[in-house]
Amino acid sequence: KAGVTQTPRYLIKTRGQQVTLSCSPISGHRSVSWYQQTPGQGLQFLFEYFSETQRNKGNFPGRFSGRQFSNSRSEMNVSTLELGDSALYLCASSLEGQRYEQYFGPGTRLTVT
Amino acid sequence: AQTVTQSQPEMSVQEAETVTLSCTYDTSESNYYLFWYKQPPSRQMILVIRQEAYKQQNATENRFSVNFQKAAKSFSLKISDSQLGDTAMYFCAFMKGTGANNLFFGTGTRLTVIP
Questions:
Q1: Is A104 close to B102, i.e. CB distance below 8 A?
Q2: Average pLDDT for A67-88
Q3: Cβ contacts of B107 on chain A, cutoff 8 Å
Q4: What secondary structure, in 3-state letters, does chain A show?
């Protein structure tokens, strides 16, 4: 069974630009969560999608948004990038009813210059 | 609000020895899960072990075991017979028993296994 995949793995953007990251969950997993990992703030929850609906949202500004498609693949978008958005972005998927088993992808390393 | 605290930023252990990583948490929930995740240099977050709060028995997975003290809100990880491949960041995490799927993470402990 293929694991969670994230694309791209590495990304360099300029301040003010926008970026879209993609996450494909494990087959059959309909819940996808996104996390931001930075040296200063650690791992922070961004949002969770289930069946194409945002189910939960962390404490991030509106520049951070996401969506989920009918095949459960999810994208997150960051508009008007700031230097502080440089981070490792991780997504995790889980089966409904087994929310305690979250499988993480390898992450996308975003660098904002 | 839930908080998870890991007070040991870095630790080291000799290969084949035993090491214990500490974690404390704060919550008003009665039903929850606790986890230890491992993040090696490859950055892939890997679940090491899970403990359900309603279970009194401490979870064990091969060389990894936990000491879950619910009243003290303490959840430590013991790694026995440490191997070079155990070198990684270890994160303690909390999830509510029902409702939101999000994990609350501690700041991590960087473990180095010395040959």
A1: no
A2: 97
A3: 42
A4: CCCCEEECCEEEECCCCCEEEEEECCCCCCEEEEEEEECCCEEEEEEEEECCEEEEECCCCCCEEEEECCCCCEEEEECCCCHHHCEEEEEEEECCCCCCCCEECCCEEEEEC
